[in-house]
Design goal:
Residues 1-20 are annotated as: Disordered. This protein has 314 residues and is mostly helical. Helices cover 65% and strands 6% of the residues.
């Protein structure tokens, strides 16, 4: 029996998922929006009448009603920036999550079409798949997930910024010091948003790949396992790197990502591989290639990580 064509491995070894450009755009978008949030609170600071007091302190006129109104105004403005579009059309979901999901479906569609004539004949066009009920349902769930994520981010930022603002006012700090503390917190919030971008975009892409592969298994009877492909970059975690070149079931991959922080900031990709009843690849060329690549890269990787052999054996 003739072996099927080889699976399609990631072209960019540093960006196995192919989502890096999308993540970078999201990170810039987050930075722009969160800096706008910082301006909201600095503008709020400037709304409070103040005058110099003794010992280099400042006295702010803190009428409770005015304070509550200013903080409420700031809260509404923050939500307008971070929750733009609402649950059904959230900016982050529309501009980044939906394209990532579509890219994941496309990657699996192209990969399985090359390996399996049955898949190529049994599945509709990519456009039809993207418009299908399963894909639309997945997007709805992703959009709900991201809206809750963004609501949490917005609430955390409002809490932290309001705390810093009111603490500075209560302590009579110089307005410049309060503004500096607010800007410092904005830097922390941007890093928090970066983590969301790097985690949620690749999650949407992987989930699309898993679900399209599962449809091929259930509806077409294909036997599929996933080849783990790590970036093997200086920031790669050891437990991620050690999976490189190994095959796992979809359930095993999903379970692994559900543990601890495995899904956070992960750049790894999984590629669908046709296997026989025993889980052996029908075409092992890509497996051999991935393992050789791992052997080549491992020495450099372990030097960068300062990993000793006893740690690897543990």
């Amino acid at each position: 029996m003739k072996a099927p064509k080889s699976a399609i491995l990631p072209r960019n070894k540093q960006d196995p998922t192919g989502a890096d450009s999308l993540e970078r755009r999201a990170i810039k978008d987050f930075a722009r929006r969160i800096k706008a949030v910082g301006k909201v609170y600095i503008d709020a600071l400037n709304r409070f009448p103040k005058s110099p007091a003794v010992n280099r302190r400042y006295e702010y006129q803190l009428d409770p009603l005015i304070l509550a109104m200013i903080l409420e105004d700031a809260s509404l403005l923050v939500d307008a920036v971070l929750l733009e579009g609402g649950q059904n059309n959230l900016w982050f979901s529309e501009d980044y999550i939906a394209p990532a999901s579509a890219r994941g479906t496309s990657q699996t569609f192209v990969n399985l079409s090359q390996q399996s004539a049955a898949y190529a004949a049994g599945r509709e066009s990519l456009q039809a798949i993207l418009l299908s009920l399963p894909c639309q349902r997945r997007l709805s769930l992703l959009f709900a997930r991201e809206f809750e994520e963004m609501k949490g981010l917005s609430a955390d930022i409002k809490r932290d910024m309001a705390r810093i603002l009111t603490d500075g006012l209560g302590r009579g700090l110089h307005p410049d010091i309060v503004a500096r503390n607010l800007r410092k917190q904005i830097g922390i919030e941007i890093r928090r948003a970066n983590r969301i971008a790097r985690t949620e975009i690749t999650y949407a892409l992987r989930k699309a790949r898993w679900e399209e592969a599962e449809i091929a298994i259930v509806e077409l009877g294909l036997k599929i396992m996933l080849l783990h492909f790590s970036a093997l970059s200086p920031t790669t975690r050891v437990n991620h790197a050690l999976r490189h070149g190994h095959l796992y079931t979809i359930a095993e991959v999903q379970e692994w990502y559900s543990i601890g922080a495995n899904a956070i900031n992960c750049k790894c990709a999984q590629v669908e591989i046709l296997v026989d009843n025993k889980g052996k690849p029908l075409n092992s060329k890509v497996i051999d290639k991935a393992k050789k690549e791992f052997e080549t890269e491992w020495n450099r990787f372990t030097v960068n990580k300062s990993i000793c052999q006893c740690c690897l054996a543990a």
